[in-house]
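note to self: the first set is below, dont mix up w the second
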Amino acid sequence: MSLWTKLAGLSNNAVFRKAVVGFSGSAAITAAGMLLSPVISRLYRPTDYGEYAVFSILLGNLSIVSSLNYLGALLLPKRHERFVALTQLSLWLSLIVSVSFLVLLWFFEDSILTFFDIHSIGSMVFWIPFILLASVLMSCLHSLSIRENQYSVKAVSDVSANMTGKGYNIAHALWFGPSPIGFIIGDLLNRAVAIGTVVFRLPSRLTLQMLRPLPLRLLVKTALFYRRFPLQVLPSTYLNIFSSQLPILMLKRYCDSAQVGSFAFATSMMELPISLLGGALSPVVMRDAVQAHHDGGIEQLAKFCSGYFRRIFLGLAIPFAGVAIFGDLIFPTVFGGQWKTAGVVACLLAGYYAFRLNYYIFVAVYTVIHKQIYDLLFNIVLLVARFAAIYFVVQSHGFLYAVGAYSAVSLVLTALNSYVLLGTLGIRSWKVALEQFSYFAALLGVLYLARLGLNNWLHLG
């Protein structure tokens, strides 16, 4: 079979076509992020990133709890009525949490700012409930776009929102000077533009159906039907996200704000391809995994997952291997000399993020086969291991050693979780593990030799 024949066959693949649309938006965002990040990093200080990172953690924790993770079920219902019921259930729950937190802030604002050590943010903390509601509505609208196969709408929404947020980050720093407030208002504008874009581009009959009130009885019935999401998926999701937030919270206690900011900036750059490429692929994979399971059961689902699990890693592990070897040179060169420490942090984290991408994309398959308990157990172990790694290492060896320990335990446990998922589908996961680790080690070896050659050439020159 010729190359052109293979390419033609691939272009007729439904998953490939949908992923290309998602990737077009993600590629635009990634390009914009890489072009604008050097500008933003020179306008803001590591301490600004450190303060904003803590604010984001507070917002992120509330976002997870507010909808009880019913957002994760939005792509599962066959009937549109049940999808609308899940949407309204998520929005009502988020409204209750937002109003409750607003009241809490009214009475205990100073105590909350003191506890999280974010006094520089001040009254901007009152924007958290509004950003929270906007985030949930944005997720519902994006899920509606995916259900209706309007992947281009989601892509345009993502690009428009991302450009607006980053544009405001730059404008705020130039006009008012660097501060975490620039990032917070940028977040709010990001979500507002994302919502407006989807509402404008989708047929009004679809968006109006989402907001037309349903009987309370139907909402309660829907909540009970998908109860495994708050009971099993929510704890697992929360533990996974909280364990990724744990380094910032712990380093904030034992290290200075500049080091915390360096870690936050490095992880934000590493998360860029994870959230954007993974964000483009995970809804497609989830939707088609559900369809494969409906059509051919566990055997068809295993065949689907095995093929894409391998292909995604082979292509997307390359840039992470490059960061692992050249990150300490790339960051200060691209983002400015004040981010040299962030470059070292990126080197230490790159291996973990290479294996995290597959987990990010395929973890929802646990939901399809009703094995969420496995992910929950892994995330409990991961949280404990990360806490122990940071707590004991940071006090005895300092900041960078703690980051290395965090990365090592994260890599091993995240990769193991992914391979257990494959094993539950009947796939020989040990062969996949051997293939991927050998491939990544070979990439590191080739790039390391390239760096040695580059050093010798520069030295001789």
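second set (the one i keep forgetting abt)
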Amino acid sequence: MPFKDRSAVLLVLLCVFVATFGAQVLLNYYGPGVSPWVIVAVAVASVPVSIALVAWKRRRDRDE
């Protein structure tokens, strides 16, 4: 894991959870016409995005 503290890992997990929950809400709103694989795709895509955002936040906080 590229992070040494638990807060960064928890922040990544929180970002993935929120993205997946949002995809589930949208899927329920649009009905059964949308493939449930959308949730899997959102969860998989949100992992590297969340890691990049947390790394950017830590770098920004360290530079101040």
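remember for set 2: The mean pLDDT is 80.
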